[in-house]
Design goal:
The complex is a heterodimer. Chain A is α+β, with helices and mostly antiparallel strands. Chain A folds into two domains: 93 residues, 2-Layer Sandwich (Alpha-Beta Plaits); 62 residues, Alpha-Beta Plaits, CATH 3.30.70.1150. Chain A is 26% helix and 39% strand. Helices cover 37% and strands 17% of the residues of chain B. By secondary structure, chain B is α/β, with parallel strands linked by helices. Classes of the chains: A alpha+beta, B alpha/beta. Chains A and B meet through helix 1 and helix 2 of A and strand 6 of B.
């Protein structure tokens, strides 16, 4: 089993995401993370799915996704084939802050994006390992909430989605 | 020129523009405007009122499989739509082109649990090739055009279009534009010359090549190309369940049928060939048995239109992606003319073993009770070459398939992939309504017929001259056979107390006859074919007969058993 990123370039029609997720649920495969957004071409969406499966399975998944009528193109890469990023937010109670926070923020290149009377919110972008590491440290500060985005990614190979969308 | 009309009229005008001549359906609240419009177009489009929406969709499937056209059915929202789901799943897995139109509650009521509202888009999604909800009259014609195109092109499948009631009654522009392509959908793949050369090289060097053909040959209208390929290559060829009829069984290369209850030689010798050519078939588990012991010794050439089927179950050494009508023609040109007499003789020798061990017992039994096989044997004697065999699911299906003499293409309608009991009676009706002059024989079991027996009413009303042959063993026979073989004869809920089927058929005004003695069988079958109109023939067969050969679940094709 390996971690793969599946890219789906699709028409922006209602129900597409449902059709895609059905392919995973039917086979009992858990989606690790999923993000969807408009691409730079109006009306064309891109969905990025992170999944941990065998190579054989990821090929079957991509074939089945590509078979969906309104999907323009689907393909997959291993982690080495993509540049990807995730974003994490950490909500910390003000009451637990001590002098140590500055060092943590500096060490992790995190930033404070909100400060309220009762809490502050830190933001960190980076791979899962990195955001998880900070989470472990902040547990010592009575972290109130933690949220991490799905993966946004671009492929390293020099192909643009224009070549799929005529 | 654009004209404004009611959405309901647009629905019917669009169907007519797609050359739909015959549609099946059942009215109800949310589809009533469409039925109202239909009233005005009865001279241009025929509608058959079935007795259940499941009957409508199976009839549309039978019609589509025999005509090669897109089957169309109409249903209302809620229960009307949910009753279509089995048929959608069946059509989708068996690649049958279908467009189903369902009514839906008005757009402003969507998601409110309104009367007869169901999320048919969500429910039908996994059972369709494409589905779409229309909420404005102006969007109806483009959706229907796209739906027909998707249903019939590429690998055919089931399409559902859900139309809200407000869209049916509002006015919209009608200017019908057939759909021919759109960017996210690929229907044609040019055949790669390299793959043809690689396949030809494998075949030219092969000593024991073997060809398997499926329904793709029929869907791709490649029957002639298959025959020319076999004539030149000399390769033995076996059929899948749904491929039956694509090649006449009288062709010298034809060696039989594949799968769990197929023939002995075609299964056994799969594991002895050196090159395996699969044409328009998808290596279903009922064909392959245990995949880890399936044709491991062979180089596999797969001619297939659907890219997702290539390497799905069996890895292809050479994959020829594209329409098999083109690829078979190209491959025929590229190969050397050959004969494989010694190899063919192996098939014939094993066929002889099967004849002695199984076929004789089935077709010319010595014991008192009638067999299912002898009923089919008599059907073969009296049927026309282009007679259509429609079967349900179970023992009778396998026996009828094994013994029916397929001579022409598009003579077979059965539920293959989904295995839907209750399929046969309505499907036979649909097949018959495509052509009243053609013989349509509906072979069905006593379990399956009772799942959709209400369609006798539709047969009565349409006077469709379907020949119904009920093979009655008072059991859910295939399940009982498995209980006997794998569950210590614990016949858990498989025995049926049946109604008087003859009275039932007669109540619907259908001429009926019951046969329990061998002496009466031939004449009864003959009477059935001679009779002008629908006929119900009940054949009381041996209660506990089994279907052989058999590859038990989890076994390899080479472990096919004769008893």
């Amino acid at each position: 089993m390996k971690r793969y990123t599946i890219f789906v370039i699709t028409e922006n029609f209602i129900g597409i995401l449902n059709r895609i997720t059905i392919i995973f649920t039917r086979r009992g495969i858990n989606i690790d993370a999923l993000t969807a957004s408009e691409s730079r071409i109006p009306g064309v969406h891109r969905i990025t799915i992170e999944v941990t499966v065998t190579e054989e399975t990821v090929i079957q998944l991509v074939n089945q996704i590509e078979k969906i009528i309104d999907v323009i193109k689907a393909f997959h890469h291993e982690d080495t084939g993509v540049v990807y990023q995730e974003l994490a937010l950490y909500k910390i109670p003000v009451s637990r802050l001590d002098g140590g926070l500055e060092k943590i923020i500096r060490d992790h290149h995190a930033k404070i994006i909100a400060a309220e009377p009762d809490f502050v919110v830190l933001e960190l972008t980076g791979h899962k390992e990195k955001t998880r590491e900070l989470l472990e440290i902040l547990k010592g500060y009575g972290i109130l909430e933690f949220a991490r985005s799905g993966r946004v990614a671009v492929a390293k190979r020099m192909l643009t989605i224009d070549s799929f969308v005529n | 020129m654009e004209t404004k009309m009611r959405g309901a009229d647009i629905v019917i005008r669009s169907l007519i523009a797609e050359q739909a001549e015959l549609i099946f359906g059942y009215p109800g609240g949310a589809i009533m405007p469409v039925y109202d419009a239909l009233y005005d177009y009865q001279d241009q489009i025929k509608h058959v009122l079935t007795r259940h929406e499941q009957g409508a969709i199976h009839a549309a499937q039978g019609y589509a499989r025999i005509s090669g056209k897109v089957g169309v059915c109409l249903a209302t929202s809620g229960p009307g739509a949910t009753n279509l789901i089995t048929g959608l799943a069946d059509a989708q897995i068996d690649s049958t082109p279908l467009v189903c139109i369902t009514g839906q509650v008005a757009a402003h009521l969507l998601g409110t649990d309104a009367f007869q509202e169901t999320d048919v888009m969500g429910i039908s999604m996994p059972a369709t090739k494409w589905n779409f909800q229309v909420r404005r009259a102006a969007d109806i014609a483009p959706a229907i055009a796209k739906g027909f195109f998707i249903a019939r092109s590429g690998r055919p499948g089931a399409v559902l279009i859900d139309i809200t009631k407000n869209a049916q009654v509002e006015l919209g522009e009608f200017n019908y534009q057939p759909c021919q392509e759109f960017r996210s959908y690929k229907t044609h793949y040019p055949i790669a010359d390299t793959s043809i050369l690689q396949a030809a090289a494998l075949l030219n060097g092969a000593e024991r090549p073997y060809l398997l053909f499926g329904q793709g040959v029929i869907l791709g209208k490649a029957e002639a190309e298959l025959k020319f390929f076999l004539d030149k290559s000399g390769i033995p060829a076996a059929s899948t369940l749904l491929g039956s009829g694509a090649l006449s069984q009288e062709h010298p290369n034809y060696v039989g049928k594949l799968g769990m209850h197929g023939n002995y030689a075609p299964n056994l010798l799969t594991n002895q060939c050196d090159v395996l050519v699969a044409v328009g078939m998808r290596f279903d588990d009922r064909v392959t048995g245990d995949l880890s012991r399936y044709a491991k010794q062979a180089k596999v050439i797969h001619l297939e239109l659907d890219p997702s089927e290539i390497n799905k179950n069996v890895k292809a050494d050479v994959a020829v992606l594209g329409d098999c009508k083109e690829s078979l023609a190209k491959l025929t040109e590229a190969i050397a003319s050959k004969k494989h007499e010694a190899w063919m003789a192996k098939f014939r020798a094993l066929e002889q073993q099967e004849n002695e061990a199984v076929v004789q017992h089935d077709l010319m039994p010595t014991k008192a009770g009638l067999t299912m096989g002898e009923a089919i044997h008599h059907i073969n004697r009296y049927k026309a070459d282009d007679a259509v065999l429609v079967t349900d699911v179970g023992q009778h299906q396998m026996i009828a398939w094994r013994y029916f003499n397929y001579k022409k293409t598009r003579t077979q309608v059965t539920s293959g992939g989904l295995g839907t009991m209750g399929f046969a009676l309505p499907a036979a009706l649909g097949a018959q309504l495509h052509d009243y002059s053609r013989q349509v024989v509906c072979v069905v079991g006593d379990g399956g017929i009772q799942m959709t027996i209400q369609e006798l009413g539709t047969i009565m009303q349409t006077k469709a001259p379907v020949k119904i042959v009920l093979l009655n063993n008072n059991y859910l026979g295939m399940v009982r056979q498995w209980q006997q073989m794998f569950f210590d004869k614990r016949y858990s809920f498989t025995e049926l107390d049946n109604p008087d089927f003859i009275k039932l058929a007669e109540a619907y005004g259908i001429k009926a006859k019951k046969v329990s003695d061998r002496a009466d069988l031939a004449e009864a079958v003959e009477d059935m074919f001679i009779h002008d109109g629908p006929f119900f023939l009940e054949v009381v067969v041996e209660k506990e007969d089994n279907v052989f050969p058999m590859i038990a679940t989890g076994c390899s094709v080479e472990e096919v058993r004769l008893n």
